[in-house]
Amino acid sequence: MNTNPTEDVAQLGRVFAAVADPTRRAIVARLAEGTATVSEIARPFEMSLPAVSKHLKVLEAAGLLRREVVGRVHHCYADLEPLRAAENWLHERNAFWDRKLDALGEFLDGD
Questions:
Q1: How many CA atoms does the CB half-sphere of 107 hold within 13 Å?
Q2: Cα distances (angstroms) measured from residue 73 to each of 28, 31, 38, 109
């Protein structure tokens, strides 16, 4: 992530918002397997290419997708680093609450 905490929080919000949608999660999962064109990404979904394109733009804004244009063909690649950053954030929150709940348990047990 960034050295700017405000931007880190904003980026984290974009990542969580992007993967909140099942279509976008499916697209990320597909791209994690390898590069695909927009048409290849759109094929399994019952929606228009413009609708798929909107999903791709959300993923790009979250940093989860990179696009390379060759002629008129858009090749899409997954960038999973923002997901790793989100996972790290979740682990940090989990560790924080584990410590707090352990301390509460000790307090209630009278230790």
A1: 6
A2: 19, 16, 8, 64
Task: State pLDDT tens for residues 58-108.
Answer: 999 999 999 999 999 999 999 999 999 999 999 998 888 888 888 898 899
Q: How is the chain split into domains, by residue range?
A: 5-109
CATH 1.10.3720.10 for the 5-109 domain, yes or no: no
Confidence band of 24 (pLDDT split at 50, 70, 90) = very high
For the whole model, what pTM was predicted? 0.79
d(CA 1, CA 105): 34
Give the three-state DSSP class for 47: coil
Measure the CA–CA gap between 97 and 45, rounded to whole angstroms: 39
Q: Which residues, at least 6 apart from 21, have a Cβ–Cβ distance to it below 8 Å? A: 55, 58
DSSP class of residue 21 equals S
